[in-house]
Amino acid sequence: MQMMDERSRKVLCAVIQSYINFPDPVGSRVVTKRYSFGLSPATIRNVMADLEEMGFLIQPHTSAGRVPTDRGYRFYVDSLVAERDYYINIEVLQEIYKRLEALRKNIDVFLSETTRTLSILSHYLGIAMSPKLNITTLKRIELLKYKADKLAVILFTDEGLIKNKVVSLGSEVSQKDLNRITGYLNSEFSGHTFDEIRLKVIKEMSREKTRCDSLISKAMKICREALSFPHSALFVSGLSEVLELPDFADLKKIRELSRAIEDKHTIIKLLDKLSGCDGVQIIIGSENSTDEMKKLSVVVSTCKEGDKSLGVVGIIGPTRMNYEKAIYIVDNTAKFITKMFANR
């Protein structure tokens, strides 16, 4: 964190907090009235000018007050994280627990509700990403005849994921044979991660070239197809909450936000990168690598069961975000999810 004297730090935090609460450029008189620093408006004006010169504040136009830059937000957020004794709200915690406790058995439904809860409590976008499929552990697989040459595959994992897809076989298979294949796959692969199963399937299929058991060969093909999911699932809620904010009052900003949400691959890539980090991670405005996200801030945290990721939860909002509350909500949601799945 950049060195700054205490007076400048207090003025910067006051300007940022005032701008978060009231989205208008902040003048020295506003700071004097709202915060008891014992400093004159002239002194505060000089400090704000110094902060602007340092790159922490910017003046939108002559004679206007000042607003924070991404650098200013970064200093403010780093100060909050360093203190660790900031925002506390027991009612928020109780609301998180009440909404999520009943949905623990199906992690997809659970994460979907998590995003709604995050959005309702923060008034920003709630986001969540399911665990990486390659490290999840298969609990059981079910195969159901769908059409003559197609079947429905349902995968259950130890982490609570339920995945399903339709697989084409190219030839007809009876439900009786599918039941036999189901028993074989569960006995062979239950308790293994998807990565481990893929390796075993590759080895088994190479052996099948010298075998005559067509049923096992079909079982290997079904398993290979069943595990081919392209990426983790992404859940996003709360667009209506965000569009009510003054930050998205004009059509151009709404379009930018919509593009950022629609490009789920970009968000998944970002969350995937942050999923290996411990604790709350904050990406502010221009720190985002993609243009669609450069006017947005992201607050996320990974949920874990031991060393295994259970997914990522977080919030996306404008750079004029209530970081103190957002960090608190995301941090405690992730901790609650981690604790809940550890005790199931």
Secondary structure layout plus pairing:
Blueprint: H1 6-21, H2 28-34, H3 41-53, E1 57-58, E2 67-68, H4 70-83, H5 90-101, H6 107-122, E3 125-129, E4 138-147, E5 150-157, E6 162-168, H7 175-189, H8 194-208, H9 214-226, E7 234-237, H10 239-243, H11 251-262, H12 264-274, E8 281-284, E9 296-305, E10 308-318, H13 323-342
Antiparallel strand pairs: 1-2, 3-7, 3-10, 4-5, 5-6, 8-9, 9-10
Count of DSSP H/I helices: 13
Number of domains: 3
Number of strands: 10
**Biggest sheet features:** 5 strands, antiparallel
Based on Cα principal axes, name the global outline: elongated
Share of helix among residues? 40-55%
Q: Can you tell me the CATH architecture of the largest domain?
A: 2-Layer Sandwich
Radius of gyration: 26 Å
CATH class of the largest domain: Alpha Beta
The CATH H-level superfamily of the largest domain is GAF domain
Q: Which percent band covers the strand fraction?
A: 15-25%
Q: Poorly predicted ranges (pLDDT <50, ≥5 residues)? A: none
**CATH fold label of the largest domain:** Beta-Lactamase
Distance linking N and C termini: 40 Å
Mean pLDDT: 83
Strand order of the largest sheet: 7-3-10-9-8
Structural class based on helices, strands and sheet pairing: alpha+beta
Order of helices and strands: HHHEEHHHEEEEHHHEHHHEEEH
